[in-house]
Amino acid sequence: MYALLAAGPEASTAVVQLRYEDGAPASSLQTVALGTLASLVRDIEDAHHPRWVWDRASHWYPALLAANVRLERCHDLSLCQNILLDSEFAALTEYHQQFTSLPPESHLLREDSSITGAQAGQESLFQTPATQSESQDWDLATVAKELGAQKAATSSSTHPPRLTLLLSAESAGALVAAEMQYEGMPWREDLHRRLLSDLLGPEPQNQARPEKLEALAAELRAALNAPALNPDSPQDLIRALHRAGIDVKSTRSWELMEFKHPAIEPLLTYRKLSRLFTTNGWNWLRQWVRVGRFHSEYVVGGVVSGRWASRGGGAMQIPAQIRGAAVADPGHTFVVADAAQLEPRVLAALAQDSAMAAAGQDSAGKNKDLYAGIAAQGFGGDRSMAKVALLGAIYGATSGESGRLVPQLARMYPRALDFVEQAARAGERGERVSTYLGRSTPATTQEWHAGQQSSTAQEQRRAESAARSRGRFTRNFVVQGTAAEWACCWLAELRRRLRVLAATLPPAGANPAIGTPQLVAFLHDEVVVHCPLGLVDEVTTILHESSRAATGLIFGNIPLEFPVKVTVVPCYADAK
């Protein structure tokens, strides 16, 4: 059963209606004030456990969470529309054809305009949406019509079960994201301030540099003989480096480290501490940490590959320098689970390469280190060499050590290497590729195709470079995008099982020492659960079971595991 939730006739109202799977009304329309919406939603959830349908979870769910209302399931129309409009699986459906015949401004739910059209992020898997439109006030009729259209598009697609799973997992991810933002990760502000003071000096006033940064800036000016240097200006810095005989093309750390000069060490230290100051300094604390919790805003499907992003809080990458401030509450600990070697295992599953899959299992069929298995089969036992080769194959390396080792890997695992090669060749031809469940790359633009028809030698070289770049993008997309799907299914299954566990626990008032385990952070392939000490074993088991369930949901019964490494630590900095 569905429960449709939409804007009401007045700005301060909402409407709710239960509907059967076929779209027929199962209840009368209820119009309520926003202030009493949570009570109505709680009653419907307890009585019917429906799938809630709304324009987007981020519009409705935070207020419900603040009223202590948690939902089991939803269908996020915005996230699902973004997938369906780009998916090759739905390209021939009436839904897709109707939308592509309309101007972009007619796509009222479409959030991620930066991953379509001329700025499609076709050469960057990490393209982040430049803007996100505000939620539209959709009435119930519009929500119902959009739900029906999306269901029809999914059922008439080329792979209905896969696309259905993707839309369900993406919508579950929307609930997880809102819940993690609401819960927040335990964060000791006093420890964070101590770390900043130790590394940077006392908190500066009026946006001035901290004293240790200023001391490094002075050292750098002296080493470069540039008394007016502003080390925060890339242009100033490049000019000063060139005048000092340091012929760099950029200020990237790896390039700077190739030169021996008294300025290099203070410059590298300055850049590292400057990032800390600007990204996770005192201003960051004031904006994102409240009442002992770090509340980041997660963006589901925030990049073109389907990976999540975060808006402002940097939740997808917590720098090692400040992880010491993430300390579990008394009576609790962090249970941290990392999906080991996820992308290489996804490649083996996608390509159905039994030889590569066997490298990740021992003689008894149990999981083992995939890189070590590959090294034993063809790289003389050198694990680091095997890792470089495999990552080079996924990312399209053609030079350096990776490029040298990839041919050996191709001889060992021709199916896996051919799979990514085919994706790369399709991208070079301007074709689209898709993940296993059906997220597809944005279509190439007319300008891109026109560039491929260039006649002059210079234009041809530029076109060939653009084609190779897109080939590297599509090669990685199929693997990284499918890995993102696995992670989303893992999250959804983990959330479901943690809810089941919570339902078996006594009320918090009956035994406050027990508490409820909560998902508090997600970092691409890693999840963090804030867990009562007495439930560590149960949560650890759930993390492993959820990973196996995610693998089965996507790939079925295959001779390959997607193991997770679980560590239990009181401080997130101790997780390795």
Can you tell me about this structure?
The protein has 4 domains: 2-183; 189-285, Taq DNA Polymerase, Chain T, domain 4; 296-341 and 485-574, Alpha-Beta Plaits, CATH 3.30.70.370; 343-479, DNA polymerase, domain 1 (Orthogonal Bundle), CATH 1.10.150. By secondary structure, the protein is of the alpha+beta class. The protein is built from 21 helices and 14 strands. Residues 110-122 and 128-135 have low confidence and may be disordered. It has a 5-stranded mixed β-sheet, sandwiched between helices. It has a 4-stranded antiparallel β-sheet with strand order 12-13-11-14.
Percent of residues in helices: 40-55%
The amount of beta strand, in percent, is: 5-15%
Number of domains: 4
Helical stretch count? 21
Rg value: 26 Å
Averaged pLDDT, please? 89
> What is the 3D shape?
globular
Strand order of the largest sheet: 3-2-1-4-5
Structural class per helix/strand content?
Answer: alpha+beta
Parts with pLDDT < 50 across at least 5 consecutive residues: 110-122, 128-135
Separation, N- and C-terminal Cα atoms: 43 Å
Number of strands: 14
Largest sheet: 5 strands, mixed
List the helices and strands and how they pair.
Layout: E1 2-7, E2 13-19, E3 30-33, H1 34-48, E4 51-54, H2 57-66, E5 73-76, H3 77-86, H4 94-100, H5 140-155, H6 160-183, E6 185-186, H7 189-200, H8 211-224, H9 234-243, H10 253-256, H11 264-280, H12 282-288, E7 289-290, E8 293-294, E9 297-299, E10 309-311, E11 332-339, H13 342-351, H14 354-359, H15 370-378, H16 383-395, H17 400-412, H18 414-428, H19 446-452, H20 457-504, E12 518-522, E13 526-532, H21 536-555, E14 564-569
Parallel strand pairs: 1-4, 4-5
Antiparallel strand pairs: 1-2, 2-3, 6-8, 7-8, 9-10, 11-13, 11-14, 12-13
Helix pairs in contact: 2-6, 3-5, 3-6, 6-20, 8-11, 11-12, 13-18, 13-20, 15-16, 16-17, 17-18, 18-20, 20-21
